[in-house]
Specification:
single chain, 183 residues, six-stranded antiparallel β-sheet, three-stranded antiparallel β-sheet
């Protein structure tokens, strides 16, 4: 054999030894458990989010009423406004409304609300919720009115209207705003 053939054979022999050694290391590592692993840690913080939605229908129409008449949503319409908590934390719900009546000065006792509580159907009013008739805050003011937690997620708000005896005739409407905040 010449020098170039000897170099060629020596090179092949080195490659064969390396392949054999790597295969042996792989077999030994798998069979003996001497495999080295690195462990990392992932972290995340999920913050509380106060989220509420109105369950359809999100409107109440008391229909034709006369001066001096009182009606509430549950007996006149059959339902109140349903609020569902989509929150991952305990929340408070505040309420505010625009004036419904044209009469001046405004009689705040003519529009009232309360949270309806039921023992079944998933509706509940935890401690601290307003469950007796209370004047609706008018003119952008709000009041903490209900407390929903991660197990009591849905509640019904009932409204009672009394048409003032000196209210002018015509169509009346008010926008009611519910706001969620962390409890």
């Amino acid at each position: 054999m010449g020098t170039s053939n000897t170099t060629w054979v020596a090179g092949l022999l080195v490659v064969a030894i390396l392949v054999s050694a790597m295969a042996t290391m792989t077999v030994v590592t798998k069979s003996t458990g001497f495999l080295t692993a690195r462990v990392g840690t992932l972290g995340a913080t999920v913050g509380p989010t106060p989220v509420i939605t109105m369950v359809e229908p999100a409107w109440l129409n008391f229909g034709n009423m006369t001066v001096g008449q009182t009606a509430n949503a549950t007996t006149s319409i059959g339902w109140g406004l349903m609020i569902d908590s989509q929150s991952n934390a305990d929340i408070n719900i505040s309420i505010g409304a625009d004036a419904l009546w044209d009469r001046v000065p405004y009689d705040i006792t003519s529009a009232k609300y309360r949270f309806m509580c039921y023992t079944g159907g998933g509706r509940a009013c935890p401690d601290g919720s307003i469950t007796s008739w209370t004047n609706v805050p008018i003119g952008g003011s709000t009041l903490v009115t209900a407390y929903l937690n991660t197990t009591s997620r849905t509640t019904e708000v009932n409204f009672e209207l009394t048409v003032p005896t000196d209210e002018p005739w015509g169509s009346k409407s008010s926008t009611v705003t519910f706001t969620a905040s962390l409890a």
